[in-house]
Amino acid sequence: MAVYGPWGCGQCHACARGAENYCTRAAALGIAPPGLGAPGALAEYLIVDDVRHLVPLGDLDPVASVSLTDAGLTPYHAIVSSLAALPAGSTAVVIGAGGLGHVAIQILRAITGATVIALDVNEEKLMLARQVGAHHAIPSDDSAVEAIRALTGGVGAQAVFDIVGAPATLEIARQTVAIDGVVQIVGIGGGVLPTGFFSTPFGVSVRAPYWGTRTELMEVLDLARSGAIHVEVERYSMDQAPEAYRKLHDGTLRGRAVVVPGD
Ligand SMILES: [Zn+2]
Q1: Cα-to-centroid distance, 83 and ligand 1 (Å)
Q2: Residues of the chain with CATH 3.40.50.720
Q3: 214 CA from centroid of ligand 1 (Å)
Q4: Strands 2-3 and 54-55
């Protein structure tokens, strides 16, 4: 079983349609997702409060698939809500090709007709981006805006997914989103994107999504089952967990670290 993470009350309008990530009562009820606001990670066992928060894995490998509950679900939720902007011939920019970004690239390739441009500051992550299907992978630096404009014939990208969300990356997003396009601020890097007539191109919408819905997690697992997406995983034992955190801090993990009790 995979555990659906953003637990809600289960009874409000959002929860009733599976969008417990947007539960209107979770905060008031003191509901905190396991491992994000409440203890729950790095344990042999986890108490799940309701059977609705479990999604069958079927024949998917648990260690290879566990990261899909966040690294797959979070970008999937952002991309699905931008589908109308991403027909064939469009361009999607993914800023950050790490744990979430390298899955975002695969999802874009699987369910949209967009050309995918990946940005990162790390050359190894740019290589990973190309390996998982990015059409272009370019350095996330002062040259990025000009490069994206050149790759899109001056038009810009119909959708920009900022998986970093820092001030510098949001400025790249602002300068590269196309007229009538969409910016999805997925990363929690603390940046703010001024939106309005004198800041963003005409018609641009900016959204800061959070995690994803229960039905979207089912769809993410179905995409993995079909072979369309996967998470690059580094496997660690409980004793090696501090090393995994060190690599996460240093930005040297390839994809996601999975700590496996009993290894
Ligand atoms: Zn609710």
Answers
A1: 26
A2: 82-207
A3: 12
A4: antiparallel
Average pLDDT, the chain: 95
Residue from 13, 164, 26, 91 nearest 5 by CA: 26
- Cβ contact 163:70 at 8 Å: no
How many angstroms does the Cα of residue 50 sit away from the middle of ligand 1? 13
Tell me: pLDDT of 119 over 80: yes
CATH code matching the domain that covers 82-207, chosen among 3.40.50.720, 3.30.499.10, 2.60.40.2970, 3.30.420.40: 3.40.50.720
How far is ligand 1, taken at its centre, from the CA of residue 169, in Å?
A: 33
2-66+213-260: CATH, from 3.90.180.10, 3.40.1190.20, 1.20.120.10, 3.50.50.60: 3.90.180.10
* Cα-to-centroid distance, 9 and ligand 1 (Å): 4
Mean pLDDT of 73-98: 97
**pLDDT of amino acid 47:** 87
Task: State the pTM of this model.
Answer: 0.95
C-alpha of residue 241 to centroid of ligand 1, in Å? 34
What does the alpha-carbon distance between residue 55 and residue 73 come to, in Å, rounded to a whole number?
13
Distance 27 CA to ligand 1 centre (A): 10
Note the pLDDT of residue 158.
98
pLDDT over 80 at 244, yes or no? yes
* CA distance linking residue 23 with residue 8, whole number of Å: 5
